[in-house]
Amino acid sequence: MAFTHPSELVASLQQPRRVRTGLWLLPLHLIGQEANEAARLGIQAVDLRQALLQQLPPDTQYVSLDSDRLLNLLDASSQRKALGECVLLYNLDLLLSRLTQQQRSGFWQFAFSGFAHRSSALLLTLPVTAQDILPGERVLEEWADAGRLFRSSI
What is the pTM assigned to this prediction? Predict the structure, then answer.
């Protein structure tokens, strides 16, 4: 299923289904504008980098990051009631880039099939040019076939 606008993906994610996690590959001109885009779509925005930093004790200098910690951040966002029953998550690319290739692979597998029956849908956002941290093209096709991918042009 191909969407012509991200609002169509959001509307699809807001429908009852077992897993309501979508992926929006953002054009470069929208990087840094994610909160504004969420407001336009009538949904909540969460900066994952800030959410991670808020979990740390004061005066922490180094952050241990693995796929489990990242998935827990996403899970926390999916468990709370959100505006529009959907949360746009951004700065995910900054966190994914810290993971090993194997950890990223596990992350993408869980992001596609996990987070079942959560209070809020998740709209993951990444730059369309972030090829090194995106799942492979075959996996992106699975997201598209499931009606859970919006790919913007550069």
Answer: 0.93
